[in-house]
Structures are given as C-alpha cells and as structure tokens.
Amino acid sequence: MLAFLYALALLGFPVSDAPAGLCRSDLAPRAYGPGDVVFVVLSCDATPMTARVSYAGGEVPLFRLEDSAAGRIESAEAGAAAVPGLLRDTPVRLGLLLGIDVSTPPGAPGLDWEVQFGGGDYETGMHRLTVTARSFPVQRLRLPRRYAEPDPETTTRIREESERLKRILAGARAERVWRGAFDSPLPDARGGGFGARRVLNGRTSSPHTGIDLGAPSGEAVYASNAGVVALVDTLYLGGKTVVLDHGLGLFTIYCHLSQTSVLEGDLLARGRMLGRVGATGRVTGPHLHW
Predict the structure, then answer these.
(1) What is the pTM of this model?
(2) Which one of 38, 182, 257, 269 is separated from 106 by 20 to 30 angstroms, measured CA to CA?
C-alpha cells in the first residue's frame, strides 16, 4: 500500500507577532501526483508549545525528528495537537507524512499549519501543493458474476465491510510504531497495478488502490514494518485480510491471503510472518494485494 516517500517544502511562512524566521523548510518544492506519499519537514529555531497541520479538512499527525544532523526519526509525539515536554529555546524538527489520494484531481490543494510558541506568539501559513495529472492503465478483467454484479445482500455486506475499514483507518494510534523505510512483504516478488482503472465484465470499477505482488499460493507474507494488528478477518472483496496500524495514520493492508498467523492486537516486528499468499476474495489468481 505504501511504496516510496517523497520530499516537499513548506514555503513562505507568514508571521504574526512571533519573531521572524523561527520556522522554515529544509526541502525544495516539486510537483506531485495521485498516489504519492509526501514527507514534510518543518524546522524551528525555538521549540513550539503546539504545532498543527491540516490538509483536505483533517489534521495530519506530526512526529519529532530528534537527530537534526542525520534526519533520523527517533521518537514521536502525540499526534498533531501538541509537541509536549520540550525545552522552549531548543531547536526542533517536526515531520509528517501526507498521502495524495489516487482520485485527487489536478490542482493546488492547501496545506495549512500553525505553530504556537510560549507567551502566545505564533506563526501561521498555507502552502499550496502542486498536484499534476497522472496516467494510470486500464485493466479489463472477467470475473464470476457474483463478484462483478453482487446481489443486494452481498452489496450490503460489501458496504458494511468498507465502513468498518474506514473506521479502523480513522482511529490510528497516536504513537509512531514504524521505524525507517518499509520493506516489501514478499521480498522476491515484483508487482504493479496501483491506480489502475478496472473494467470488470464490461463495468467500470473503482481505481485499484494497492500493489498486486505475484507469488505462488502458500508463500510466506511478512510485515513490512513494525505495527499493531488492527484487523484480521475474511472480507468479501479482500478475502482473508490483515491490517497493520503503524501509528500516526500510517497503515499497510494485506489481502487475498490463504491463511493468517496473527491476532488482532498483536505487536509485530518488521519481518514477522503474518500469513501466506492465497486467492481468497475477488481475484483472478493467487497474489498479494498490498
């Protein structure tokens, strides 16, 4: 579900009554497309009491980058609302991850931020991201009719399972569990298909929001990074599915498994086996939807 992190700058910080130039960006701007994950860094010469960033109507969780020289992420703070327990005049770097939805149209959506210092001083600003169009392939597939044209009862089940997943994704852990780059859950597999517009039995379906990794049925699937198991269940479309909550709004999802080997609430280390490749749910053959 997560492929690579890209860099983005926060530019042109307007200043209210706070001392000028306390916060700045370390990175240069660039254009992004649907499906990109943006890594934003905000550097401040003095430590803010609170820091908030919002995008597309919601707050984006922040985490602290402790090793400013190397850029290593060593600890996380509690979400976007505050950066507690830091010395007032100590320089600090804050990071956040921002996903550009696969259905985002070209434009310039705003990324709003507010940093408040002791004594009531604060800086606010908005940076407009440049989102360009991205071309995705069209895949035409033939499936059993029950998957392409589900009956009313099945449609209700699909909707309920979708709502359940949305609730899980909206309830992310406040602390960061992941560390470093994410590994492939199938180290030797090659994949693709992200963003593909699918036509199922002649009917246009929603965009494909994962990467399909080809592998034989029964091959071991591993956690791509440390995380807490948020869901283990058999879904109509996804088949046997595991969802890992890596904290601060970052999840990975593993679908179409033949079997699972973890329980909800388990804390998994990077590389822990969580299941095996299968062909459960709406599929044309064995693979991992990640």
Answers:
(1) 0.78
(2) 182
CATH label, 138-289, candidates 1.10.10.10, 3.40.140.10, 3.20.20.300, 2.70.70.10: 2.70.70.10
Asked whether the CA dihedral 110, 116, 117, 122 is positive or negative, the reply is positive
Neighbours of 217 (CB within 10 A): 15
Domain ranges for the chain: 5-131, 138-289
Q: Which residues pair with residue 252 across a beta bridge?
A: 244
Please give the pLDDT value at position 82: 41
Contacts of 107 (CB under 8 A, 6+ apart): 131
Residue pLDDT, tens place only, 138-174: 878 787 887 778 899 999 999 999 999 999 998 888 8
CATH architecture of 5-131: Sandwich (2.60)
Max Cα–Cα distance, the chain, nearest Å: 65
Three-state DSSP string of 146-211: HHHCCCHHHHHHHHHHHHHHHHHHHCCCCCCCCCCCCCCCCCCCCEECCCCEEEECCEECCCCCCC
- Tens of pLDDT, residue by residue over 15-45, are 233 345 577 665 556 788 888 888 888 788 7
Sign of CA dihedral 103, 108, 109, 111: positive
